[in-house]
């Protein structure tokens, strides 16, 4: 089960709680405040997703985004062309036509 960092906006107490992803967040152990704020210190690893550990190099996530974009561009272009017509899309989003399929 993952641990999460929380900060209480009521008393500024910071604490770590361990609970499931879909569980309700805990209450502040210091003052009992229920609406604590989750502090994102490191993103949990998501297999196959574009989320990466904060410690990962920027280069690798950039490459992943590029791959994702290259993969999505033709689909997005097709969708937009169907909806708006090719002339409109070319005029407003020329970058969609720069990447070859
Ligand atoms: Zn508190």
Topology:
Elements: E1 3-7, E2 14-18, E3 37-39, H1 58-84, H2 86-92, H3 95-98
Q: What descriptors fit this protein?
A:
elongated, binds zinc ion, single chain, 101 residues, 3 strands, three-stranded antiparallel beta sheet, 2 domains, alpha+beta, 38% helix
Offer a quick outline of the entry.
The chain has 101 residues and is α+β, with helices and mostly antiparallel strands.
In percent, how much strand structure appears in the residues? 5-15%
Number of helices: 3
Ligands in the model, by name, code or SMILES, are: zinc ion
Q: Major sheet, described briefly?
A: 3 strands, antiparallel
What number of domains? 2
- Molecular shape: elongated
Helix fraction, binned, reads 25-40%
N-to-C terminal Cα separation, in Å? 41 Å
Structural class: alpha+beta
Order of adjacent strands in the largest pleated sheet: 2-1-3
Rg = 21 Å
Chain-averaged pLDDT: 79
Are there runs of 5+ residues with pLDDT below 50, and where?
A: none
Count of extended strands: 3
The topology string of helices and strands comes to: EEEHHH
């Amino acid at each position: 089960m993952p641990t999460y960092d929380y900060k209480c906006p009521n008393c500024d107490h910071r604490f770590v709680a361990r609970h499931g992803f879909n569980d309700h967040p805990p209450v502040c152990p210091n003052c009992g405040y229920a609406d604590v704020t989750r502090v994102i210190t490191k993103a949990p690893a998501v297999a196959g997703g574009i989320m990466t550990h904060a410690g990962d190099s920027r280069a690798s996530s950039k490459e992943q985004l590029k791959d994702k974009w290259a993969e999505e561009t033709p689909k997005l272009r097709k969708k937009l062309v169907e909806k708006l017509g090719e002339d409109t899309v070319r005029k407003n989003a020329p970058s969609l036509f720069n990447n070859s399929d």
